[in-house]
Amino acid sequence: MATSISSFWQERTQRWLARRIPRARTVVLDQRRIFIFPSATGFFFALCLLIMLVAAINYQNNMSYALTFLLANVFVIAVLHSYANLSGLNLTAVAAEDAFARQRTAFRLRVSSESSRGHYSVKLGWAVPEEERRRRRFLVGLFSSPEMRESIEVDVVAEGSQECRFHLQVGERGWYRPGRLRVESVYPLGLLRCWTWVDLDFCALVYPSPKAAPRQARATEGGDEGLQIDGIGDDEFAGIRDYRPGDSPRRIHWRSIARGQELLTKDFAAVVSDTCWLDWGAYQGLGDEDRLSALCHEVLNYHERNLTYGLRLPGKEVAPASGDRQCKLALRSLATYGLTQEGGE
Questions:
Q1: pTM for the whole thing?
Q2: What angle do CA 84, 82, 198 make, to 5 degrees?
Q3: Region class of 102: left (phi > 0), else alpha (psi between -120 and 50), else beta
Q4: What is the rounded CA–CA span in Å between residue 167 and residue 238?
Q5: What are 64-90's pLDDT values in tens digits?
Q6: SS3 112
């Protein structure tokens, strides 16, 4: 019963936040996006004021009245300063780096000030996802801050900016969004907690986890491109070099001897094809995710050896090439296989 009520409350809250603070690349904090509520220290302060007021009424002491109302005014002024500390803060999603499944990747955002005043002790962080929370507390967003995966505290000077980098663990293959970013401050007195939840347009591409697997069929060779390996084979004449002990007499360059030159040897090269197709059908008997992991391992292996390769997936084909661009294109194709092409960086 308690779990269903909590889930219902969380769902309603998320829908309300989606309408009030929609997803955007850049968010400027204003009155509509900022929430404020007394902290635990603020509630204790208010309780003390109430006790002081009761004592002043009981003893009819003017100095007690004056001190109580003075501290109450301080509380009211703290509300204005707490709000002003977040108001005008500009949050921009810079980039989200790609990563392999269940690894950590970097999310970079820029925090800047659009006002003539600074912003101090601003805490930024992503809350732990609901499925990772073992113990839930009712109204956790009001009376205390939720548990954070990673948080950073920054100070932004007037009309200045600062770039922050968060390292978060991503999930399974596909597009990964970290969720809403929590921006919080208890500046200046700690009596009030000013916060907001912003949904920055962050999206990291998660590649399959590379894992070697036996192939039932060899990668197919093709194309006219190849690697020339000097000193091996008899396919093509590659030039003349100095004689080395053990060279075959058939390769000795007799014309140079006839001309009175030093002993030379004819060098030949073997041409072997290095263009291979990494084929989905070469991993029969494996599930889709296992095939993607095996192909990811092969892509990284071929890229490390700087070989030319192509990739064949059901309904998609990556033409043979080599280099960083080919590796990224192949990994991206594996990551988005069977998914809608949305939200990529």
A1: 0.69
A2: 75
A3: left
A4: 52
A5: 999 999 999 999 999 999 999 999 899
A6: strand
